[in-house]
Specification:
Elements: H1 4-25, H2 28-31, H3 52-77, H4 83-114, E1 118-123, E2 126-132, H5 138-149, E3 157-163
Parallel strand pairs: 2-3
Antiparallel strand pairs: 1-2
Helix pairs in contact: 3-4
Length: 164
């Protein structure tokens, strides 16, 4: 007699087999995508690719954020920690989430206003901005710093770095 595990295995295996046969026998025209499906849409398509340095900075920041979040989660779930320590860990987690949201908002603001891809890192009252651009433009850096400072009530220490 067939048990439940064997029945599920056979069902999933047959589904995968049917889908793979369908994919192999599908006409190649369906696999090709047409970028401009609507002929009346004559808007130019602008693609902005993120530079490798920005990608590396994002990965590094995400890894660091995940490490901090995991250590704070361990404090929250530990039975040996006091209520005060758990409250402090929870507040730090909230601050990390708020900072990450603020960083994303600032990156979007720089993209919308200056049409530049950027990486923003907030650490207390310091904001580090890396902009994907070859030319080092002092006026542009000044404008970015003013725009970012306008989002905050207190004085922030903002640095702008141009890299490609």
């Amino acid at each position: 007699m067939i048990n439940k595990r064997s029945l599920w295995f056979l069902t999933l295996f047959s589904l995968i087999l049917v889908l793979s046969v369908y994919y192999i026998t599908m006409p190649s025209e369906l696999l090709l995508t047409n970028k401009n499906d609507n002929p009346n849409d004559n808007k130019p398509v602008v693609e902005i690719e993120e530079s490798e340095i920005l990608t590396a900075l994002r990965i590094e920041a995400n890894e660091q954020l995940m490490k901090e979040m995991n250590s704070l989660k361990e404090i929250l779930t530990s039975v040996e920690t006091s209520v005060e320590e758990k409250n402090n860990a929870f507040e730090k987690m909230k601050l990390l989430n708020v900072n990450r949201g603020e960083e994303e908002k600032l990156e979007k603001q720089i993209l919308d206003e200056f049409k530049l891809k950027s990486f923003v890192k907030i650490d207390g009252d310091q904001i580090r901005i890396v902009v994907a651009k070859d030319k080092h433009d002092e006026t542009l850096a000044n404008n970015i710093m003013r725009k970012i400072q306008s989002n905050f009530d207190k004085k922030m220490y903002i640095s702008v770095k141009f890299q490609q």
